[in-house]
Target: Putative receptor-like protein kinase
Amino acid sequence: FKPFILFLFYAKPLVLSSSTTTINSSPGTMGGDLRHFFSHVSLCLLVSLLAVKTNSSFTPADNYLIDCGSSAETKLPDGRNFKSDQQSVSFLQTDDDIKTSVDSIPVSDSLPLYLSARIFAGKSTYAFYISRPGRHWIRLHFYPLPHPLYNLTDSVFSVTTETTVLLHDFSARNSSSIVFKEYIIYASEKLSLYFKPHKGSIAFINAVEIVSVPDELLPDSASSVPQAPDFKGLSSFSLQITHRLNIGGDLVSPKIDPLSRTWLS
Model:
């Protein structure tokens, strides 16, 4: 890293789940007037390298890493250990016990997390106890592995939390690439991920990450895109991370980034 390089990431606010009937500014909800919310669909945040260095010794209070469907613990090149399916079964509520795994996939530089998956024929839930309320990363990994009875490339499903729609009628039809989704959401006491297959379809997941976010990582205000007055009250929003760019620098991998993130050059 070079000192004072600026990092840029794009994030977009998420919609509330259909079960939520009110919108207010309390933590864990989208906050603010709905029209005001949709006028700031893209948020551009600049974070200095100094902030990244500040977090180099950060130890997350909550750090749930699950390699779904895996028969053994999985260690990534960045040093993180993902629990096996058996080690994490206490977090899962489902009527199904459907798993699949392969020795390899036709995707270069893919992580071992994509070699196994959990399949859900009905609504299923991962529920996590939150030891320290605050912002949390939700990272979801998808790759449609083969299964003798279920075609994962044809699956259509939704993923939600108690308050927020993460994915609606999602499908991973392209077996030539992995799908990685990342969010920042406020959580307190418990955070649940609900997987709901479309009628007549299935849902699946390869890996799940629920990790505490450092309090100082994100400011409460950000510049809007397109140009407009600064947006304030960011801490009350749920965000989806869409891009991270290392402006003027090289690619930064999770092995280098102290918070296990990837920054494109």
User: Anything to note?
Assistant: The longest helix spans residues 49-54. Residues 1-9, 18-43, 45-54 have pLDDT under 50 and may be disordered. The domain at 63-212 is CATH 2.60.120.430 (Jelly Rolls).
